[in-house]
Amino acid sequence: KNDPMEFAGDEAILNYIFNPRSGVSTQQLAPNGNPPSHNELKIKEQEAVFCAENDNLDNAVQILTQIITLNPNYASAYNNRAQVYRIKGNTEAALRDLNQAIELSEGSQESGKVAQKAHFQRAAVKKELGDVDGFNADLKKATELSSCQSNPYAKLCHEAVHEMLKLDRS
Questions:
Q1: Crossing angle of the two packed helices 112-128 and 132-145, in degrees rounded to 10
Q2: How far apart are CA 139 and CA 133, in angstroms?
Q3: DSSP letters of 4-58?
Q4: Angle, CA 76 vertex, CA 141 and CA 157 arms, to 5°
């Protein structure tokens, strides 16, 4: 218990690994009423991504929802849950989560990557829905959020995307 590397939810994770149908409760994630740290949430988020990558979509949604319940301002969990909803074909829920991820992450340098990913993902959804203007606006915003200013290769990519958008409109 005194090991600083010990995660408060280790027991919950091990239980989930050996008994995935059991799910993970928020009590397991936040024992003694103490909210989990950002690193602990990130570990849980990685677990959810692992579930999604292994076609365990319901558990991925459950874990991401628990993370959001514990920290409603954690933009990355909304973005990842939106991806799972997209895979499940729930476009409405995906758009709702993407909008929330973008709202929470814009303006924050640390969350800039989340905003960029959410804009790219929302652009894909809008394209699937036939919203060409929405697709173009999100794609443009996502490329603006990329690291174009500091990376010359990214800047070239950014310019290529803009040229592609011009061709797409004609």
A1: 160
A2: 10
A3: TT--TTHHHHHHHHH-GGG---HHHHSGGGPPPPHHHHHHHHHHHHHHHHTT-HH
A4: 35
Q: What are phi and psi for residue 99, nearest 5 degrees?
A: -60, -40
> pLDDT for 51-83, tens place per residue?
999 999 999 999 999 999 999 999 999 999 999
Most distant pair of Cα atoms in the chain: their distance:
64
CB 7 within 8 A of CB 13: yes
User: Using an 8 Å Cβ cutoff, are 91 and 128 in contact?
Assistant: yes
123-160 pLDDT tens trace: 999 999 999 999 999 988 888 887 654 556 656 665 66
